[in-house]
Amino acid sequence: MLNINPHQQAMLKAMGIDLPWQQPTAPAEKTSHTASEHAEQTVAASIPPAAPAQRQQQPKPVSASAAPTTTASQPSASVHPKPEHPSAVTPLSDAERQSRESIAQMSWDELTQAVSQCTACQLCKTRTQAVFGVGQPQAQWMIVGEAPGENEDKQGEPFVGQAGKLLDRMLMYLNLARRPEKDQLPVYIANVLKCRPPRNRNPEPAEMAQCAPYLQRQIELIQPKLIMATGRFAVQTLLGSHEAIGRLRGQVHHYKNIPVIVTYHPAYLLRNPVDKRKAWADLCLAADTFDKAQL
Ligand code: URA
């Protein structure tokens, strides 16, 4: 049984995790999967196994003083080999690829404008507005989700619905916020898709392929110290893996030398609260990995 302090108890309560509970011990547990849009079940492995990182049982909130104020160099010692198939999405035609290549040179403002005016896929016809992201571009933490839902499409901001509220509570525990107050550290939140799929259906491979350069450029410009990939579409895009979340979590992966922690999508956690305890362990690993990246 964990020895947790009152702050941690409050966080667990905020995440809806009942106390007391046992710390999970199996790193690659089988989970009960749903067939719904955010089901965290996938089919084929495409990335080599990464070395399991030490999992702390009591993650420390990230302190502002512990984090440098400038973006430092990326950790390089523990980079895992690139997957054989770096992208799990449908390849673009030559013409499409050329038209997307200019994105890699864009400034932040140019990128924001390009996303807001994007017509590269059919989702532009049904969106209210494109949802670029939220947070400070200087953030050292980045969260990657799937796609805007109905609320996000209306408000123009990622994760503003129920899943977003859970995400915010989880981030609060790490002393992170999209709009930081006092000693909180900024986090940047973005999605794989910038436009809402109709009826919140799953992103299609062609849509992910068209939208991926935007996320790639966001990451290049932000240069976060750590990325949390929430759900299988974030994992597919960042790691090129179709492996199940339950098999990828508990390890430190990398996207272009940036540590990536895989965790369940908050919407999945709302439907499967029993897995919140695993998400808590993922937060522990994220905090630990972030601290190590500062060394
Ligand atoms: N789910 C996501 O993945 N992103 C959002 O912005 C909202 C819900």
Descriptive overview:
The protein is of the alpha/beta class and 295 residues long. The protein has a domain at 97-294: Uracil-DNA glycosylase-like domain (Uracil-DNA Glycosylase, subunit E), CATH 3.40.470.10. Helices cover 33% and strands 10% of the residues. It is built from ten helices and six strands. A six-stranded mixed beta sheet has the order 2-3-1-4-6-5, sandwiched between helices. Helix 1 (6-14) packs antiparallel against helix 5 (162-173). The longest helix has 18 residues, at 205-222. The two termini are 30 Å apart. Mean pLDDT is 79; it is low at 19-39, 41-58 and 64-88. Residues 23-102 are annotated as: Disordered. This is Type-4 uracil-DNA glycosylase. Residues 132-284 form the Uracil-DNA glycosylase-like domain. Keywords: 4Fe-4S, DNA damage, DNA repair, Hydrolase, Iron, Iron-sulfur, Metal-binding.
Topology (SSEs and partners):
Elements: H1 6-14, H2 94-101, H3 108-116, E1 141-145, H4 150-155, H5 162-173, E2 176-177, E3 185-191, H6 205-222, E4 226-230, H7 232-239, H8 245-248, E5 252-255, E6 258-263, H9 266-271, H10 276-293
Parallel strand pairs: 1-3, 1-4, 2-3, 4-6
Antiparallel strand pairs: 5-6
Helix pairs in contact: 1-5
The structure holds uracil.
Uracil (URA) binds near residues 146, 149, 158, 164 and 267.
Organism: Saezia sanguinis
EC number: 3.2.2.27
Family: Belongs to the uracil-DNA glycosylase (UDG) superfamily. Type 4 (UDGa) family.
